[in-house]
Design a protein that fits this description.
heterodimer, A: 341 residues, two-stranded antiparallel ribbon, two-stranded antiparallel sheet, 72% helix, B: 241 residues, alpha/beta, Rossmann fold, 10 strands
């Protein structure tokens, strides 16, 4: 047996075990409350993974991604209510619109640096929320302003219309979406556009001198990120079946995505998932137990966690966790991590 | 026909003429030096050639093609590479990653880019440090990485901005060897340098600029004897001595 093979085997076994566990969780967990928490966890992991394409790899800090969640949710819902188009089709329309909007917002704003980009995306997100709150109807499409939209129920589990009575189908849909999103980021990080994106995010002038049209790659990343974010928006709409501008287009939402990414590890593949794993339960439980006493407390706790993480692990929790994982593997296999020659 | 021709290039920032009607002709295979006191406009001139700034006036031709005002990434694709005076490595990435970004200009295939990058790193004595984070390198290694990364784009013309500043004397000698090696591999070099010993020994020809204007050009011997150059560097009172 050549060296490192035992370690590899254990690594593979652990990963398969994790995958099996995640895919069979609904068998063990029957409580809809806990399933809902898990679904929201995966949804935030998914949305943060999309956010990470711009906020992580492209090295800027978008703080208005709720706009694209909202575009996805509103587009698919309006198409379904007005023309009876299934949300499965409507979500692609929402994604395309979000991508186009994202690209148009990105072309001027991605040239800005640091806080200026963050502020301009925030302004766009807030602007879209206020606009939506003031529109009751566009032609035959009902928007309902600040009251939001209630999606009419259809009886039973209806796969074709993206509505289910119990939580299990939602769980699998978002889990698969998350897997695809993580795969996409992993794949992009290994090809030339991913290298160019990360290089341009870190040192734009140096990247340009090495032949990278930095702005172009950032704008494409923004388009892809917004496209995928909008798909998550449709999912959220179909899950809750009711949404309103302040919830789905609000700043809280955008901030939470940024928090999750920063704490998990910005610009890493697993970071958003790990961040969501840590922060979502905090968010859910403070909402359940403390929302009547101190609404918004979860954001204060997020802030505290963020300060601690930035002080002690400025590159996010991915680093210590992957070191811990390596240590576990070393222990289990009795072999040291192999270093490529 | 010269490889790079800078014809009456000026760059103004508001009322400041950072570069004022400078002309330089660089022949293929030369090591061409650009010197001048601090703030003379050397880096600004480099930035005009490399595409970071578009010149206010004048033209720049490369291989007979007008490249005035081209964007930096298009200049790089024309096989003109550059380094920065203040090195700009991708600090959070490994040394290999840094070089791969450069190598990607000639291939979209990652493993091929990695092979080419690794080759270049070995040439510049960074082969055993490929997996270190660029941010953890010593200043000498960062300068070397800056050169290696630019060389990974396989240039024909190399603009080096103070690649030896801040190095110890023995490191300066190593870098001089590397520069000669680069030239011998068929790359034309245009360099800014403050270390006179270095630039005088390695250059075939030198242009001196002061306050944005060219004051002379010639061989290192001619330049070092010229009264105007001595004045520019040491001030009027030394000029007569």
């Amino acid at each position: 047996m050549n060296s490192g093979s035992k370690r590899k085997t254990i690594d593979t076994i652990l990963k398969i075990a994790l995958a099996v566990l995640v895919f069979t969780l609904p068998v063990w967990i029957t409580s809809p409350t806990y399933l809902q928490i898990l679904i929201m966890l995966f949804l935030f992991a998914y949305l943060t993974t999309c956010w990470n394409l711009v906020g992580g790899f492209a090295g800027v800090l978008p703080l208005g991604h709720s706009a694209y969640v909202g575009i996805g949710a509103y587009t698919s819902t309006v198409l379904w209510i007005t023309w009876g188009i299934s949300p499965w089709i409507g979500m692609w329309a929402g994604a395309v619109i979000a991508a186009i909007v994202g690209i148009f917002i990105g072309i001027p704003t991605l040239k800005l640096r640091g806080a200026y980009f963050a502020l301009s995306t925030m302004a766009f997100g807030e602007g879209l929320r206020v606009l939506t709150e003031n529109i009751m109807q566009v032609g035959s499409c009902v928007i309902n302003g600040p009251r939001g939209i209630c999606i009419p129920l259809v009886p039973g589990n209806n796969l074709a219309l993206y509505q289910f009575v119990n939580k299990v189908p939602y769980y699998y849909i978002i889990l698969i979406m998350l897997c695809i999103a993580v795969f996409i980021t992993w794949y992009i990080s290994r090809i030339r556009p991913g290298y160019y994106l990360a290089a341009g995010g870190e040192e734009p002038e140096a990247a340009q001198a090495l032949g990278v049209n930095v702005a172009k790659y950032k704008v494409w990343a923004m388009g892809l990120s917004c496209f995928m974010t909008a798909l998550g928006g449709t999912f959220l709409a179909q899950l809750t079946l009711y949404f309103y501008p302040k919830q789905i287009l609000g700043l809280d939402f955008s901030f939470e995505l940024a928090f999750i990414a920063l704490i998990g590890g910005r610009g890493t593949i697993a970071g958003p998932v790990i961040g969501a794993l840590l922060l979502r339960p905090v968010s859910e439980f403070t909402r359940i137990y403390l929302s009547s006493v101190l609404p918004g407390l979860h954001l204060v706790i997020f802030g505290l966690i963020l300060i601690l993480v930035m002080l002690y692990q400025p590159r996010g929790l991915v680093e210590p966790l992957s070191r811990f994982y390596d240590w576990v593997l070393d222990r289990l296999s009795g072999e040291k991590k192999e270093v490529k020659a | 026909m010269a490889l790079l021709e800078i014809n009456n290039v000026s760059k103004h920032f508001g009322g400041l003429k950072a570069v004022d009607q400078v002309s330089i002709k660089i022949e293929k295979g030369q090591i061409y030096g650009l010197i001048g006191p601090n703030g003379a406009g050397k880096t600004t001139l480099f930035n005009c050639v490399a595409g970071a700034f578009a010149p206010t006036m004048g033209t720049i031709t490369y291989n007979g093609e007008d490249i005035t005002g081209w964007k930096p990434w298009n200049i790089c694709r024309k096989r003109i590479a550059r380094t920065f005076q203040i090195v700009k490595p991708f600090q959070k990435k490994t040394v290999l990653y840094n070089a791969v970004v450069g190598a990607f200009i000639r291939t979209a295939n990652r493993s091929e880019a990695e092979d080419r990058a690794m080759e270049v790193l070995k040439k510049f004595n960074l082969g055993d440090k490929w997996d270190k984070l660029a941010g953890n390198l010593t200043i000498a290694d960062r300068k070397r990485l800056e050169i290696a990364r630019a060389m990974a784009t396989e240039p024909e013309m190399f603009l080096m901005d103070e690649s030896m500043a801040g190095l110890r004397p023995n490191e300066v000698d190593e870098t001089l060897d590397e520069i000669r090696k680069i030239r011998d591999s068929g790359v034309t070099i245009f360099m800014i340098e403050h270390i006179m010993r270095a630039i005088m020994t390695v250059s075939d020809r030198i242009t001196v600029i002061q306050f944005g204007k060219k004051i002379m050009d010639g061989t290192p011997q001619e330049v070092s004897k010229d009264e105007r150059v001595i004045k520019a560097y040491l001030g009027e009172s030394y000029g007569a001595a």
